[in-house]
Predict the 3D structure of the following.
Amino acid sequence: MIPEIEKAFEKGRCSVLTPVFEMKDVVFVEVSEIKRFDPELMTFANINTADEMQRIIGLSSKKEKS
């Protein structure tokens, strides 16, 4: 993925997703397909702080108990 990031920067494209769209072997999956395995879409939870990480861990623990 590093080459794609470098190409994106060279073109002045700084979006986080730009390198993903530049990659040749990316497989895009429909949300409906992901929801079959992860109905709440927690797979893609954004975690930026230790507090957010603890919240996600807590949610995961509650889900495992039920």
About this structure: Residues 33 and 39 are 10 Å apart (CA to CA). Residues 40-66 form one domain. The two ends are 38 Å apart (CA to CA). The helical segments are 2-10, 18-22, 31-35, 50-65.
